[in-house]
């Protein structure tokens, strides 16, 4: 039985976020991913397992190699959740811009 974790648990870790960035550019083997980090390959494999359990990446056997790739649909779910915060911050920045503009026009 496959264990499921919360995707936010996965992206909370900087190494896993970096792995996602790598996989967003291209599908890679665990060895190719590990070459980008100053960590032992078993450590990277554990990070890959967490990302798989969170359904953020998928693995496919090609010959003797396992190729990892990002699951864009799951990343879109995270982006959708973050969108609510993006709207709040954009609104706050707009308010700040308006305030600063108003203050600059009031200068003698």
Would you spell out the secondary-structure blueprint of this structure?
Elements: H1 7-11, H2 14-25, E1 28-29, H3 30-34, H4 41-53, E2 57-62, E3 65-70, H5 72-106
Antiparallel strand pairs: 1-3, 2-3
Short description:
This protein is an alpha+beta fold. The protein is built from 5 helices and 3 strands. GO terms for molecular function: DNA-binding transcription factor activity.
Description:
One of its GO terms (molecular function) is DNA-binding transcription factor activity. Residues 1-90 form the HTH arsR-type domain. InterPro entries: ArsR-like_HTH, HTH_ArsR_DNA-bd_dom, WH-like_DNA-bd_sf, WH_DNA-bd_sf. Pfam families: HTH_5. This is Putative transcriptional regulator. Helix content is 65%, strand content 13%. By secondary structure, it is an alpha+beta fold. It folds into 2 domains: 1-70, Arc Repressor Mutant, subunit A (Orthogonal Bundle); 72-108. Strands 1-3-2 form a 3-stranded antiparallel beta sheet. A hairpin with a 2-residue loop joins strand 2 and strand 3 (65-70). The longest helix is centred in the C-terminal third of the chain and has 35 residues, at 72-106. It starts with 6 loop residues before the first helix and ends with a helix. The mean pLDDT is 90.
């Amino acid at each position: 039985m496959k264990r499921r974790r919360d995707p936010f648990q996965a992206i909370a870790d900087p190494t896993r976020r970096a792995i996602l960035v790598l996989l967003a550019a291209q599908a890679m083997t665990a060895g190719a991913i590990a070459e980008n980090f100053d960590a032992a390959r078993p450590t990277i494999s554990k990070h890959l397992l967490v990302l798989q359990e969170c359904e953020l990446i998928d693995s496919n056997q090609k010959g003797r190699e396992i190729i990892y790739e990002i699951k864009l649909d799951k990343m879109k779910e995270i982006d959708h959740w973050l969108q609510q915060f993006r709207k709040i911050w954009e609104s706050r920045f707009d308010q700040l811009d308006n305030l600063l503009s108003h203050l600059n026009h009031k200068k003698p």
